[in-house]
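Long-time lurker, first post. I've been practising inverse folding by hand and with some scripts of my own, and I keep getting stuck on stretches where the structure tokens seem ambiguous. Below is the full token string for one chain I'm working on. Before anyone asks, I'm not after the true native sequence, just a reasonable design that respects the backbone. If someone could post their per-position residues I'd love to compare against what I wrote down in my notebook.
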């Protein structure tokens, strides 16, 4: 069994990006600038955004964090987005999800200029990705295909089972893996809460991508020996032995599944660091106008 070390791969890619940033500055170009809007004080969102800001530092990027309290109105957020859209000093920005219930996430996402949508959540980027056109690919799916590629795990002709159909992970990763492209060409099945007999489906899989947010969902009896398992789950569970009072648990029963696998990602240290680094790469692409031409 090989443990897929997402942290190591992410550190390598960050070093590559930092070298590119240094080369841009040496040419007298402005360094990439990522902005993030964070609403409220959800522990998970605070941590993710802090990691994004730190990754910007490691890549030599400028970052700006814009905070709002939980009671911010949709109109205030839309105004902030309008300013970031118009700011020539900002190459890309994200609005950390989830948002409070009184705000329409979809309206917020659609207000972001798709040319600065480094999360790849805008319908233009989602649509372009699904038909194989250049676009900002959302960070977690991009990180997953990068890991499979770097560990030489073939996707061509592989049976991939995606557990979960979220707009952020399940749908886009299924779309990428089925593309007629070097990192695609898989036969993809997506399972969700209305799928009967999931075990029968996962047992046939060469690659399982678990993105349900259900700790320990994938058990050993669901896995074909020699399969590759990518665990996207990061649920906080109580742990009195930790200073924080919690630990992160993935969607896979790691201890019992790992011995069966050819490759498996740990939680934490697997997909998470790759998500952040994919966001950094999208920001670099935005700064260089490599996906969409400058205005
Ligand atoms: N919430 C969970 N994952 C993500 C992500 O990749 N981007 C944003 N903006 N919010 C998230």
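-- Answer (accepted) --
I ran through it position by position. Result:
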């Amino acid at each position: 069994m090989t443990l897929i070390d997402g942290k190591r791969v992410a550190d390598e890619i960050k070093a590559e990006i930092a070298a590119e940033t240094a080369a841009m500055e040496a040419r007298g170009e402005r360094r990439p600038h990522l902005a993030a809007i964070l609403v409220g004080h959800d522990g998970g969102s605070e941590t993710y955004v802090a990691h994004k800001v730190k990754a910007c530092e490691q890549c030599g990027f400028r970052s700006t964090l814009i905070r709002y309290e939980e009671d911010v109105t949709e109109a205030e957020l839309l105004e902030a987005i309008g300013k970031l859209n118009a700011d020539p000093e900002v190459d890309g920005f994200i609005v950390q999800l989830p948002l409070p219930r009184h705000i329409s996430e979809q309206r917020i996402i659609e207000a972001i200029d798709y040319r600065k949508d480094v999360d790849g959540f805008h319908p233009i980027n989602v649509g372009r990705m699904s038909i194989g056109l250049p676009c900002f690919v959302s960070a977690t799916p991009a990180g997953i295909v990068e890991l499979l590629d770097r560990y030489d795990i073939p996707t061509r002709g592989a049976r991939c089972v995606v557990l979960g159909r979220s707009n952020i992970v399940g749908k886009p990763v299924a779309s990428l893996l089925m593309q007629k492209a070097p990192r695609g060409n898989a036969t993809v099945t997506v399972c969700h809460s209305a799928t009967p007999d999931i075990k029968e489906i996962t047992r046939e899989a060469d690659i399982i991508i678990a993105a349900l947010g259900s700790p320990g969902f994938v058990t050993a009896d669901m896995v074909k020996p020699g399969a590759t398992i990518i665990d996207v789950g990061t649920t906080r569970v109580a742990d009195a032995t930790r200073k924080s009072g919690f630990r992160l648990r993935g969607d896979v029963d790691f201890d019992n599944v790992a011995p069966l696998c050819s490759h498996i990602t740990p939680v934490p240290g697997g997909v998470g660091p790759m998500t952040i680094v994919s966001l950094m790469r999208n920001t670099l692409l935005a700064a260089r106008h490599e996906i969409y031409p400058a205005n």
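A couple of notes from the structure itself: Residues 94-97, 119, 139-140, 168, 275 surround guanine (CB under 6 Å). The chain has a mean pLDDT of 97. Happy to go over any region you disagree with.
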